[in-house]
């Protein structure tokens, strides 16, 4: 089957390029592989105007997604989420142009749907029989749903203290759930060990190349929804970092396509004070992030003490002229409540964290009041309601 893309080492170590017609995970150097397309071939036959009639999902950008000729996407309608103006919160903060990209409206209630739609599409095309993932919660739910849709078995590994709704939703979609003592990194180790023995296809964050492809469509959509230009800032709650890596990749690709010409956005990584390896590394001027000891936060998706894509996240933050901010659990829950009460947007604590970070950035004079800011509400409130229980 012909593919229009191949895989390259994300840090240009000299290995590769790698054939996308075979299962590929990390590069020989241990860093992520990224998909590369033949833009010189794609651009002349894919005018921006053709999107007027495109499907209202992330697959509207199919020529820029990992779909081999003759393949059909594994899709549940992910993406093309609304970019809501948030005038009430904007007024509270003194910002004229505050927008929230509401990823809670995706299948299984989070932006993880995009990555899993792309990854399961490719795994299905490559004939995988069993998919596995270590997850803080949302990625497991998304994998469970997309694997079910594709008729593939899913094995998900989550920390034992994950909130109950995540476990139940995985079971709704027929996934085999294993609860692990420890954090997502421990779940990752166990999933990899078992997977090696059984020949499972591992879809861990950035350990397979296609979840980032799904996530990059957040960038494509923000640009399209703003009339093919970038906002000044995009604020993203960062765990493993596929969102940042994907959005930065979208910036480059949209330039290659000639669809967006203006200045790129500055990217902001938000993490929790109780687990902020990327924030610490960014401010220390480091290229990679040391593992965080004793990771603890109510935002499950941000409880990621170490990530294989650290180098790519830090590079994107620096190249974009962005920054990295840590917020307290209390402030992120406050942010979640503000999004809910002031705008009617149901936000996960990770989404609340972006608002808390924006408050800090305005207070510190980093974000100016006349700038345009997009917050990514990466997930919905419903699976996290225990964090707002009183008493
Ligand atoms: C709601 C939510 N936001 C943000 C993240 C962080 O995503 P990533 O690990 O891709 O940086 C997660 C990850 O689980 C999440 O569930
Ligand atoms: Zn390499």
Summarize the structure.
With 391 residues, this protein is an alpha/beta fold. The protein contains twelve helices and twelve strands.
Order of helices and strands: EEHEHEHEHEHEHEHEHEHHEHHE
State the share of residues found in helices, binned by percent: 25-40%
User: What's the shape?
Assistant: globular
Count of individual beta strands: 12
Write down the overall mean pLDDT. 96
Give the distinct bound molecules: pyridoxal-5'-phosphate, zinc ion
Q: Beta fraction of the residues? A: 15-25%
Strand pairing plus helix content: what structural class?
A: alpha/beta
Largest sheet: 6 strands, mixed
- For the terminal residues, how far apart are their CA atoms? 58 Å
Q: Give the class-level CATH name of the largest domain.
A: Alpha Beta
Low-confidence stretches: none
- Rg (CA only): 19 Å
Give the CATH topology of the largest domain.
Answer: Rossmann fold
Count of helix runs: 12
How many structural domains? 2
Side-by-side strand order of the widest sheet = 3-4-12-9-10-11
